[in-house]
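Quick question about two entries, pasted in order.
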Amino acid sequence: MEPNQRSAKRELVAYVHNVSPVKTSGGKKKSYFDMQLQTENDVVRGVCFASTRHADFSTVAEKKSPVKLLNIDFDKHDHTSVLMGGTVQLHEVKASFAATTIPTSVNVSSLAAVNDKQIVSFKAKVATLSGTKRVDTRNGVKRKAEALLVDPHGGVKLVLWEDFILQVKEGLTYTFTNVRVRKNNTNASVSVSTPNSSDCTIEECKPFTEPLATPAELPETFTSNGKS
């Protein structure tokens, strides 16, 4: 995600949660940190490209104070990630809604309680992996595959897009970082998807030592309905 991937300037009232350490973006050597912004009706991802503002965001997150954010942009690809630079302003305000607890990581069974489009991280085994197909999206034709993920608590479908498809193999266990939750209110289904414009990573890790859920035990509500 780059600072020039922007829409019109906006403002937002939110609680700041889970501010990350300052990171470096790939080969472009851009410093940034991210966080979760809890608004009245949603939880969205915030990314700040000014490392000098890290202390400001960490302070309001620790105080659990609602803030009005000025001089922000929304990512033009997914319209849910909030982009900020050195000119972002944070003003403590009163809010008509209370702060909630947002965990930095979840297990598969707790995804049903997570907000739609929320960015989450978790560990799971790839139980099955489909073949790749090409689908039409609003951003053109994309390669897509689906995987069934399981952990000791349950299972969920993961929709993999483009280069992420080659990053997983059936039977191996991974840490999935910054994947997006997708919910279908029509049939109460839940899935997760690799976003097309965030710092999503998939890294192989040690297998679980506990018994895992099997497909026969998985709830029917965990069905695939992911979008990029």
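Here is the second entry:
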Amino acid sequence: YFGICFLTIGILLIMRIQSLQNDPEMNERKPFLLLFSCLVLVSGIFCFFLDENWVIILSPLEKAPLYIIISMSLNFCVIFSIVDLINYFLGFFQTSNSKTFVETPKQIVVSLILSIIMGLFYGIIFSIFDLEDQRGRQLDIQLIQDEYYCIPIASFLGFIGGFVNELLRIKGDYIPIIFSKNEDPFNDEI
């Protein structure tokens, strides 16, 4: 089921990215988005591999790359689907000159980086607990342990991502960082 979904989403993402306008700002985004779209396609293929019995004999360490790639793709799809839905629905309530939720290239890069970090973490945790091979009560216990580790990290990264996204949305395409010397009257030697 997930394999078919990932393949379909990957193809739709590639088609959508190819239909984007040709302007310099969009050209900066396209390589990143195409890379992640291909990652979603590869994840769809990996889902079919994980459905086979030969995967059961692999150790958790050997399964980790598969789980990491699949969880990165899942995070990418979920994050960008939610962002697109929020942008779409907020468009009904905003004026035409209002900024959307995520629109600058830096905001997209922040979302991509969060997808990578969260996917890496989820894939490692899923492979450490070897949840695919668990059944019954043991699976319930392992899922609770998995949540124990994943929820705090996801909450923290979500908070950081939301904060940085809002900063970038308010400031626009750049955040000026200005370092200036504080003039302190007590700095002079006596």
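Reply: The mean pLDDT is 77. The first helix runs from residue 2 to 18. Hope that helps.
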